[in-house]
């Protein structure tokens, strides 16, 4: 197709393109409106491609901008473009790949990828063959332009390229790319590796059949003079380590030598190479292959942890006092509310219950909760997602410390000695970071050094450099567990005093680090902090008036964590008078639609739970607002579902946070919440929330239902026939937290409903047995499921006991790891009742029952008698000789424990 522009039209578009480069917002807005208006004319896009590809009289930025506007048009209106116009654009793009300007070639490549991504790859059968043919051109520019486009296509459409719908073009493309690994141009070599790298992680078959050739070629160009090539080689090797370690193992020694050199490069290559160590540290072969090189690697990693000049510039490392400078919106990362999940607060690690587990298989099932990666958000920069060499090196050191444990220290301690006390603050700072990084893996070996190191770090909290003060906060938080276990006067008191000073630091980064570190200390110290509560609250509330927006969010978290950690000790008039006025000043200043309510409501939820009756003066105003937030959100939801064009979808986080705060209020006030519940429509709202399409809403509503069941069952009781089928329907482990809270609520309801639970047993027992027998069920859900099954057995033993054999082994394995508490008590009473009804059901797994019975420290007198009766009854039933043979299978600790506790 040939097309020629009208001179007037062309001149108008050139003027617009030039104006759009203006820094004046008013001009830009006017241009935007004009561009939207021009989109009504079909051949507007012809003008845009013409400017990009033909109008060489214009400067490159203007031509490129024309292409980028066209790219957006194709992305948004591609489906409506007339076929003739689209064909013209395609033809021109391919021609432009041989433009002398790299910027124009790159823009044409972006356009081609955009067209391919809007589903046109299927309708553009000649695209890939044409690009592959262009690779063979003798003209370097044509080859490079084609490769630029192919790399973008490989990046964006990796799956499509391997589909049968396109006749698997990769079968031709991968061997083709491999030919260019030895091309004379470094740019072409780099493109060739980058294209193939896109297919490693997906284990694409077309690549796997050539994997040895690929690796051989990678090795061939690994020492390339060009950094971009080496960077892509490193990237390829890191991905191969993830998916084809078998192919790399024979060459591992050489690869390690190579990566040691590349990690010391001075640019991006070092980060790509460093990711190799991070990946290797997680592999089972790590120790075997890395040990001979460890003494050379560790100093390289510690050097990589030093701030670079660019880091210092970005971080404004020379700005010491910035607390008065308001936060910029782009520096504040989006915050998501984490819905309330009911966990067993008294859960122990395996084997901590006083008896060695007879069988270990069920003990190693960890929670599925995401653990924050400390290196992603290490107070290092305004954008925590900026992954850099420093963070990668620190994360690698942490992992290696976990692999080698104390064997790591002979190599690391001399380096730490040199860096920690260095006169250059940048070196000292990196040493403090390294000390924090190894805390988890090398804790045992570090203990003899901590009496000297912790006081030194406490002194570093007053360092004149803000970046040293902030990293010291983080490192001290990594040793908080040890600090709390020592005499208070020696370490905890001086640490707390200095950390609280840093919470009021004049530097925002230090404030943030100190607040986070203090929250960690609170979690470790719990009620040990009670003697210092007045001092702590005074500091936190002073910070409340001083902090800018971003740090205020972290402060809310520190206040909430304090409430969780000290619990009812906070319920004293003098503490309440310090804590509540600033929180309620905020509460009154925020509108219902303000997202800044989220962190405040989360914080208040912890405070309400901790204060118990001390929260009464604030309860009504909080309760009414939460009800109002839930109601508003439900009304908006109904409106937007019925009429999506007229009403926007509401942000359901408002409802979730309100439900969670009501849970905190119900847990804290207990029966005092009754009058608030009776004068509101909360049961009706709860019924709607429990059926919401969003899992997090259901999760929080089940938590609230359980808490209201405990606090004022008289108001829940009339709705049981509506509520229980919904709970039964949500026993779906695909949504772990929803399932967990539904399970817990069923247990709480059964304890109140007693024998009236009977009609609902068939509805819930089957799914609960399925969950407890599923090997991938996380620990928290296993514990809650076991407690609920036990409670159902307590109130309806005749209905539940016939299924005993289907769950007793897993039940015992799950509950042996929980400390004595009332949930465990009610569950074990239920188990005893079921064994009385169906003793045969427990016989094949009786060793597990013995182990679970031994996990009690001090059971209630009547429960102790029940357990003892079952143990002695079994012994009598099987006879002395069989019992002796049976006991021989026990670990010695279990036999001793049973003898001491139950005289058996």
From TrEMBL:
Ranges annotated as biased composition (Acidic residues): 364-373
One of the record's GO cellular component terms: cytoplasm
InterPro entries in UniProt: ARM-like (IPR011989), ARM-type_fold (IPR016024), IMB1_TNPO1-like_TPR (IPR058584), Importin-beta_N (IPR001494), Importin_beta (IPR040122), TPR_IPO4/5 (IPR057672)
Gene Ontology BP term (one): protein import into nucleus
Region (Disordered): 346-373
Entry's family note: Belongs to the importin beta family. Importin beta-2 subfamily.
Protein name: Transportin-1
